[in-house]
Structure formats: C-alpha cells, structure tokens
Amino acid sequence: MNDEEILKRLASLIEDLLGLDELQLTKATTAQDVPGWDSLAHVRIVVASEQAFGVRFTTGEIVSLKSVGDLVDLIKARSPR
Amino acid sequence: MLASRVFDSDDQARFAALTGDYNPIHMDPIAARRTQAGAPIVHGIHTTLWLLDTIAAHHPEIPGIATLDVSFPEMIYVGDQVEAEVIKLSAESLRVRASVGGLEAVRITAALAAAPPPSGGRDTHLTPMPSHSMTPRDLSLSDIAGQHGKVRIVASAMQKQFPHAARLLGPDRLAALGCSSYIVGMIVPGLHSLYVGLKLRVSAATERDELAFDVQSVDPRIRQVILGINGGGLSGSIETFSRLPPVAQPSTAAIASSVSSHEFDGAVALVVGASRGLGEVTAKIIAAGGGRVILTYASGKSDAERVAEDIGNWGGRCDLISYDVREDAYRQMSGLREPPTHYYYFATPAIARRKSNVFVPERFAEFNKYYVCGFQRLVEAGLRLRPGGIAVFYPSTTYVENRPAKLTEYAMSKAAGEILCSDISKYRRGIRILTHRIPRVSTDQTASIIPVETSDALSVMLPIVRRMHATDKTGE
Asked: What is the pTM of this model?
C-alpha cells in the first residue's frame, strides 16, 4: 500500500471518529491542524488505525507520533510486505 | 440552534437518582478536582438524552431510531451553557450535536427507522426502582477484564423525564441508555471510568427488564475498555477508558530517607496549596527536615487533612489553615501562632481546559488572580507579619519558553508572575524571592488518560527547598 492509499483510508477513519466532513490529510498534517484531535482523540485514532491496517504499535510509539506522516510511516513499517 | 440550557448541580443529582450513576466525577467537586476533569462534569448520557428529547420534541415527524452512534469529544462542566444543534436531518438519518463555546461536546449520528420502535410486551410503568449502591467500584485495569453482569432497567421515571426521547426510542431503550451510564460509572470500569461513546442497534424489545453487559476488550496500553451491552431492546458496544487514579505523592516517612533530620530546623514555612501535588511534597520535605509547616487549602480540606495526618504520624510539626488567595491575605493569616519565615506558593486554578481560541481573556484573568494578584497579596501580608525578612518561592514553568498547544494564557500569566517577582526583589526590602521554571511534574494537574513522561515531584522540589533554606545560613 502506498502513502496515498494509506492517507485516504486514514482520512475517512478520522472523519468518522471526529465527525468531520472531507478532511484533507497530508503527511505534514499534525494534530493541531485537525479540529478535535486532542490527546484522547489521538489514542482513539491510533488504535482505530491499528484495527483498520491490521498492525500493532507500542505505547511509546502511540504517544510519540508527531504527524500524520509519522503514522503513515509506522503503518508501512509494520504492514506485511 | 435548536435549544440551549445549563446543567446545574440539582440536574446532576436528579439524573444520578434516575440512573444510579453517582460517580464522584459528576457529583463531588472535591473528588472531581483530583480527576482529569478538574471539576464536576455532566453525565454524557444525560446530555445525549436531552439532545434526543429536544430533537424529538421539535420534529414529531421522525418516527423512530434504528441505530445510534454517540461520542463525547469534550467534557461538559456543570454550569456550562450547552447548545443543541441539528447538523443534518433527512428521511434516513439524523446528525445532532451539543456544543459548549463553539466546541462540539456530544455528537449523535442515528439511522432513522421507518416505523415507531417496537414496544416490549410488558407494562414498563410498573418496574420498581432498583436499590443502587452509591459507591462506585474501584477496579484496577487487570480486574476489569472478564467482568460481566446484569442490571435491572427502570423505565417509568426516565420516561417522565424524557418523554419525547421515549417516543423516539421506546421507554425500555431510553431506560437502557440511562442504565449504561450506571454500568460504566458505577460497575465497570467504575470509579475511574470515562464514557467516550457508544454504538447501538435497536433490536426487538425483550420480555426481561434487564440489561446485560460484558467486557469485550481491554487495551492496557491506552487503558481503553470496550463493553458489550444487550437488553431492553438495544444491543451494541460502549467505548470507555479507565482513567489513571489521582497521583499519589510519597509519604513523609519515604521522603525522610532523602532529607537530613535537622536540615530545615527553625524554619516556619507556609505552603499555599499543600493539599496535593507539589505543595504536598514541599510540606513533607520541610517537615521531614525539622521545619514547622503551615499547610493551606482552598477547597481540598480532606486532602489537606490527609497530608497533615501523614506529617503528624511521622512526627513532623504542622498546622492547617483555610486560605483563599483571591481574598484578604493578612486577615486569613492573622490566627497563625508565629509569623512564617518561608513561603511556598502553589495556588492554582485547574490548568488544562478545553477552549476554542488561541487566547481567551477570561482564562488569562483567572490565572492572573492566582499567579499574580494572589501572590502579591501574600507577599505584602508576609512582610507585614515579619518585616525582618522572608523568603518566598514562586513556581514558574518551563512552558514560558516552550509550551504545548492551549496553554497560552497559563504561560503568559506565569511570565507576568516572574516579572512581578523580579521587581518585588528589586524594589522591596526584607524579601528574597526564588523563582524556578518547573518542568511537567506528575500531579493531578498533568494527569492524562495514558501515562506520559513527567518528572516526579520529590526530585524537582528537594533541590529547590534546599536552595530556599541554604541561603539563609550563608546570609545571602
């Protein structure tokens, strides 16, 4: 799966969790760019992406993600090739 | 906007009596201030039912609900002005929300049913009120896995309170929703729960007036607990978190092992805000080193008494006074046995609160009452009590230089406090002020759902207390 595909699935997942319409996500997007993405929303988004992509992160990874790009890279690193 | 209202403490009590959800985060200001909320919050299900009731009253053409997806992105505090709003309404679906100050706090997405909800075959009005315990269960994360049980559903009283929502859902389902608040707040996760959302389907009403629940998953990394519920004509899942319990600071006995027994002999230290956190640890350090401490509290009397008892049991000397930094300092200190030589100022309002703008003037004014005005009053009173000289500690924050989002007013006010300290030191005689930019320390103020990296209060405060007292002896 390439970055574009991951970003698209992530966008729809985040829209769903945060109740947003048509969220534009790029790898540079950070929590501060997305309304409602606070610390609680953060863990919910990360855990929902684990389920959506069939991967699993450590607690340290969950709290240290700084941007959507970090999340995309981590998903890619963990996904079966 | 569809409707607007405030939930007050009477509303809280009424909803708690209806559902049995007496979780202290909703009911007890002193307990709630030691949680991530910082003050009592409205039951999420209460706001949900108010929203559904309001919608149903305004739109009698909506026949019923088939599925219900609710989430609680922000906490609603008791006293907040809450606004209900329809985002979208079609023949098939409904999206409504409740917001506070422009921030979405409750979001409901529902698929609408073509026909009114199927009703149960029994007379729900006759269901008696169950006898609920008013004390929530205190379960550790490892105890939570595998929990399951059944709760009796009470329909009649709920239906009276939310008659229009009862039409939309059927009285049993309305009551089952209320019951879910009781399950989460009182049974599992219980005391430290946070109700985050639910996804439910309307199913055929059952004959039995019970709501069954079971823990479907526990994610220990983020303390997320998913419950399944089934009964009263509803089935689906509830998302909750098991919050970390309030931060416990080390005992005086434990602290004494890091302190020499006569290190702080002769000091009389007034510690403002000593009922918990940095103030609690500071008081224990000074007592462990032989100093006399005066603990002050504004609202957390029982917490301050617990600290005083811990110090007393260890053999330390301490007094306890009620002190509000927003009021006359000299009058509040007039009953002291002897004038303090040292002051430690940990007075603070709740620091982390949601907000919709970068800068909210009311937040800044609130912080200034504590970090600037209250501090100045204390200093003046201290000098009046002991013109010969006092030493004062002012805790600033590393956030003055580098701060996370949403702490603009906090950092601004602490920076103002630093300037005040610097100028008092420059222009007033008989006072020495030590300021220190403290990093994020593990206290109630910084408590999060999942563990984050913080410094511990003892290792931060011990060197500071030593600096405060060491300079006395060298005559600096």
From this structure: 0.86
